[in-house]
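Table S2 (continued). Query chain:
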Amino acid sequence: MIPTVSDFQLLKDEGWYRVRISKQTPVNLRNESACWIAFYFPAVFKDHKFQIKYKAKIKQVEKVDFFDLFPNAPKNHPKAARQYFKLKIPVRFLKAL
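Corresponding output:
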């Protein structure tokens, strides 16, 4: 799920998407065998709400800390202790459905 418009913009501009590492993280991400990802758009996307609008081929998966993704975030950010999988997805791999 792409939770915000800015997250989708980040994907398009910088070619990566993040997935928080937790017990609910899909096994194929934890063992780094995921090849594809589909992006569900929630209500904040208005015209495209409640739809899967894009899929993408994952080029690389790496485990990173919050500040690896957002180095300019304040040190006391509420998500500072979280770890994520950073999925590298070049824009040319992002396909509209």
